[in-house]
């Protein structure tokens, strides 16, 4: 049976609640989403037939502000996955200290099998199904796995057609020139680097250390490029099928060019082929899972050789693996901190849309760095004070903020 990521999310919640006391009401409220929407999305395919896709939107919590979180297109997406991802968004927006709650959406589809027209019709139909519960002050989606700025543009346009709303702030991650923010594309990868850089010395990693990145989607590709630009040796990269490894380092731009040209990493010159499982076990300093959940589990956590795991994917490490890694002295910088750069720049985009402003890339990056570095250091200090791992410390910081909003509402 497929692992249920929401069960892992609840275990994480229970563990954090053992490190610090929180009100039973808060814990009960976070243990289940406020609202879940299942939709059947009919799409006219190019051959004239109709196909019905399963779609989900989970609105986990709006205690701190409107629901916020991406929409994922993946054949394995189901309600348990979307529920877990929505839960993590609630914690993530609290860690980032931005005025949002948490939500997530998904459609069970492999977008690679659709034509561009089919993809657009699916995206617009999904918005028609969800329009009554979305809105710039209600629920604000964004890109996630396999969804792009272009898709956000179709979705925002469809939403505006239905509602007449012209604020342009219901979807974030839009293209530049269509209401998108400077820096949103790189934001998750760059934010991960800022978090890493703020903690690097205290975690005992030298500048120029070796890095392996699992996943070469938007997040992994930007992260690899940014670590390389800062003098780190990127030795391994992978896509959903396979990976490549060269202990002397690869040129990230060449790897990405190869993938673009051939649609695969295999055949990349001067590198060994490694499977996605093997990539996680490589002798590197920094391991960056940037793909899907449940990658590092009790089965393989004992053989991880990295000193630090920087979670740019959501939920890549299971709770059992967390314990094994903690005992082995391997630091896991948790997803709700490490990948919060994406939603933070989504917040900047939303503010710019509502205020009719356009910020420079430089000012976006400066604000992002200041916010994430501050939260990263505070979470590290909490982990020391509470004698616990970074995930529990990040949960504690988030739960304190959510608890505060809950008290204010009484
Ligand atoms: N999908 C991204 C995440 O998991 C970004 C969400 C957003 O920008 O709202 O954090």
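^ Assign residues to that structure.
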């Amino acid at each position: 049976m497929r692992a249920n990521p929401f069960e892992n999310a609840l275990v994480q919640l229970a563990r954090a609640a053992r490190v610090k006391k929180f009100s039973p009401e808060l814990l009960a409220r976070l243990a289940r989403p406020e609202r879940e929407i299942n939709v059947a999305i009919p799409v006219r395919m190019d051959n004239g037939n109709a196909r019905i896709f399963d779609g989900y939107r989970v609105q986990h919590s709006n205690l701190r502000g409107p629901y916020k979180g991406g929409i994922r297109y993946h054949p394995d997406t189901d309600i348990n996955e979307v529920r877990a991802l929505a839960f993590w968004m609630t914690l993530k927006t609290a860690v980032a200290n931005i005025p949002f709650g948490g939500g997530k959406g998904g459609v069970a589809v492999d977008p690679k099998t659709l034509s561009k027209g089919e993809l657009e019709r699916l995206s617009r139909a999904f918005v028609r199904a969800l329009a009554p519960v979305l809105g710039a002050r209600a629920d604000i989606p964004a890109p996630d796995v396999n969804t792009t700025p272009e898709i956000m543009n179709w979705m925002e346009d469809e939403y505006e057609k239905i509602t007449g709303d012209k604020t342009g702030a219901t979807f974030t991650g839009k293209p530049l020139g269509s209401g998108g923010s400077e820096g949103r594309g790189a934001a998750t990868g760059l934010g991960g680097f800022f978090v890493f850089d703020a903690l690097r010395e205290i975690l005992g990693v030298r500048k120029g250390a070796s890095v392996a990145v699992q996943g070469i989607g938007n997040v992994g590709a930007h992260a690899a490029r940014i670590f390389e630009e800062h003098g780190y040796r990127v030795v391994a990269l992978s896509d959903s099928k396979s990976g490549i490894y060269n202990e002397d380092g690869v040129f990230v731009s060449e790897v990405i060019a190869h993938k673009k040209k051939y649609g695969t990493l295999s055949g990349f010159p001067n590198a060994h082929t490694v499977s996605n499982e093997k990539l996680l076990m490589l002798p590197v300093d920094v391991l960056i899972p940037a793909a899907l959940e449940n990658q590092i589990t009790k089965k393989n956590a004992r053989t991880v050789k990295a000193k630090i795991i920087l979670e740019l994917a959501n939920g890549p490490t299971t709770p059992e693996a967390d314990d094994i890694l903690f005992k082995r002295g391997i630091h896991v910088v948790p997803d709700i901190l490490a990948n919060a750069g994406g939603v933070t720049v989504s917040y900047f985009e939303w503010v710019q849309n509502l205020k009719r402003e356009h910020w420079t890339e430089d000012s976006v990056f400066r604000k992002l760095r200041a916010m994430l570095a501050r939260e990263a250091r505070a979470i590290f200090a909490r982990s020391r004070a509470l004698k616990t791992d970074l995930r529990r410390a990040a949960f504690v910081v988030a739960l304190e903020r959510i608890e505060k909003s809950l008290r204010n509402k009484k």
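The mean pLDDT is 97.
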